[in-house]
Amino acid sequence: MRRFLTLVLSICMILLALLTACSSDSRGVVSDSENNISSDEETQISTGDEFMGNETDAQAGESETERTVSDDAVSGSNILVAYFSCTGTTEQIAEWVAEETGAELYEIRPDTPYTEDDLNYSDSSSRANQEQADSSARPAIAGSVENMENYDVIFLGYPIWHGQAPRIISTFLESYDFSDVMMIPFCTSHSSSIGSSAENLHSLCAETVTWEDGRRFPGDAVKSDVEEWIESLELPD
Fold first, then answer.
1. Which residues make Cβ contacts (< 8 Å) with residue 225, sequence separation at least 6?
2. What Rg do the C-alpha atoms of the chain give, in angstroms?
3. Cα separations in angstroms, 75 against 97, 130, 219
4. Of 209, 176, 213, 182, which Cα lies nearest the Cα of 196?
5. Per-residue DSSP letters for 20-49?
6. Which of 116, 173, 185, 221 is buried most, with the most CB atoms less than 10 Å from its CB?
């Protein structure tokens, strides 16, 4: 009887050991499988989110670029700010006009740059004084404006030399056909007004050019002065 009980007890212990081992293996396999699935899903979600984020950023960038190009095309593609500047004063006004209107900038650069001696107004033999004394003087311009026919409005900027526009402005006006263009002059001067400097340029263009009243800006002009002036103009659509 004792041997039988011992045998039964041994068999029970063996069965219990087998059941415990199977249970442990089963739980281990399930745990590993779930971890793998979880890891794969996290990888896919992470990759997907990054991709969607990049795509969204790219699309936003394209939309912003399209809006910027579109705005520039509408507000500035038909407006040109052409200016002549030796000291940078007129150039600053021209840049502010371009910023306010969305216009394109064109610097009227002399083929032979002016030196300090050329601009010595106290020397009657200086280049600037000689040119201003000769109404037929036409200083050569370096470069040109492409597709001038695309512009409907032209802001024309220059400094005042002896009460008039520099002769290089005459060269510029005689170099293109400005028929049906709105011409808006502006000048820079510490004391002289725009006076007749703009009116004397009218005869250099076709009669179909519409000349707006010009504006003088002093050397200490600020951007808000330009903004106020632009707002007062009735520019074509």
1. 217
2. 40
3. 13, 40, 28
4. 213
5. HHHHHHHHHHHHHHHHHHHHHHHHHHHHHH
6. 185
**CA 181 from centre of chain:** 25
Q: What b/e string do you get for 30-66 counting C-beta neighbours within 10 Å, with b at 16 or more? A: eeeeeeeeeeeeeeeeeeeeeeeeeeeeeeeeeeeee
CA nearest to 166, candidates 143, 142, 145, 188 = 188
Q: What tens digit of pLDDT does each residue of 130-178 get?
A: 999 999 999 999 999 999 999 999 999 999 999 999 999 999 999 999 9
* Strand boundaries in the chain, DSSP class E: 79-83, 104-107, 109-110, 141-142, 153-159, 182-188, 210-211, 215-217
- The residue among 53, 82, 228, 54 whose CA lies nearest residue 155 is 82
Which pTM does this prediction carry?
Answer: 0.67
Select from 81, 104, 103 the least CA-distant residue to 94. Answer: 81
Residue bearing tokens 């504006």: 215
The answer, yes or no, to whether residue 72 has pLDDT greater than 50, is no
Amino acid (one-letter) located at 66: E
SS3 200: helix
